Amino acid sequence: MKLLRRISAIVLTICVLFNLVATTNNAIVAKADGKTVELYYLDGYGGRYGMSKYTVYVKVNSNAQHKEVYLHYYNQNGSKWEDKAGSYVTTLPDGSEIWEVTPGNAYGTLYAIKFVGDGQVYWDNNNGNDFTNQDVLGCANIKLRRIRTNESLNKITISLEAVVKNIAFQKVVGVRYTDDNWASYKNVELKYSDSIEGTNSERWTGTIEIDSSKKSSFHFCGYYTVNGDTYWDNNFGKNYNIDYTYQY
Questions:
Q1: Strand-pair category, 120-124 with 31-32
Q2: What's the pTM value of the predicted model, to 2 decimals?
Q3: Which residue of 18, 77, 196, 206 is 20 to 30 Å from 157, comparing CA positions?
């Protein structure tokens, strides 16, 4: 009987010590919460000699009074991980905020997102895999990519690419544009190009042609209709213009 009591006491002590260790560890480990902070989308383009430039847009859903957003990225130029602070962009209708971080030119793209709210740390690190430039879409459903423009005679041809999540097979992806400052507009549907390897995203491409004289009044945005819902990329209400381009 005494032996049984001793064994029970030892087991109880071990359980208490285990709980204390677990509680202590949980108190210092940063939280991983895909809802408090999430990749929204990646806006970037390639450059020469393997260089890339990109801006990461981050969605933050927090009531914290003091907020900080960082891109924790691997800079192959210096062969080390670095932190770059982000800046506030806008507040979405649901009350969440959009922040942006641009680390500058780098070789390759490998990063995670860190959010500090009132001293509490949250991460979105793509479930431990980190993000690459293949991960164009986070919680957004469409991203209208940078464009290429060619001007000849009196015409400008604008090449467009939209990346969308493959939510369903039947879908419509397009661009709405104006060349008269929205006195009127036209919709142009894009065509399926390919899937992005390792993701559930697809590329859709197309072109728009406008008169050179109207480029100052040219604005556009992207739309994606699937399962009866329409999602927009309108640059957070500002739309895009002819300056949103990269010459390859």
A1: parallel
A2: 0.81
A3: 196
